[in-house]
Amino acid sequence: MTDLTPPRKTASDMREAIIEAAELEKGDGSVSDGDWAYNQAIGHVIEAARALPLPPSSRKEAEEWHAQCVKRDEALRLAREAIETHLTWIERERQGPLYPAHMSRDDPGGEQIWRVWWDDQLRLCALTEDQSRSALAAIDAAIDLALKGEG
């Protein structure tokens, strides 16, 4: 009796199969203008497949890879948080204090509105600095862990 079960494919086999299929699909490059974009997309598929990292081959490598992913994801989360706070700060700086109609800083109550706005701007500025430093430290830690894993 013949075994019809296909052999298990490793990630490396699958990556090579994607590249091979995409290169066959791309053909010799002699295509009409309408197929140019399609061939460009296939070229990007080939590049992306070649750039795919091979998965870890041992439990230890898998644990190291997972730790790197966790560090990277935390660094990205912190960086996004810092950037969002920074953008909020900049947008509020552009808007300035929100005075009621026909009121300015020089009007009664205007100085208080300005002071609340200014204090919040100082708070956002300090928060942005703290978040940026935390994000940079997390990015450095993620890079150090990734480099340690390569070495």
Based on CA inertia axes, which overall geometry fits?
A: elongated
Element order, helices and strands? HHHH
> Which structural class do the helices and strands define?
mainly alpha
How far apart are the first and last residues' alpha carbons, in Å? 48 Å
- Main beta sheet: none
| Helical stretch tally | 4
Beta-strand proportion: under 5%
The total domain count is 2
Description of the structure:
The longest helix is centred in the last third of the chain and has 41 residues, at 110-150. Helices cover 75% and strands 0% of the residues. The protein is elongated and about 70 Å long. The chain has helices at residues 11-26, 33-51, 59-95, 110-150. It has 151 residues and is mainly α. The chain has 2 domains: 1-55; 57-151. Helix 1 (11-26) runs antiparallel to helix 2 and helix 3 packs antiparallel against helix 4 (110-150). The protein contains 4 helices and no strands.
In short:
The protein is mainly alpha-helical.
List the helices and strands and how they pair.
Layout: H1 11-26, H2 33-51, H3 59-95, H4 110-150
Q: What labels would you give this structure?
A:
single chain; about 150 residues; mainly alpha; 2 domains; disordered N terminus
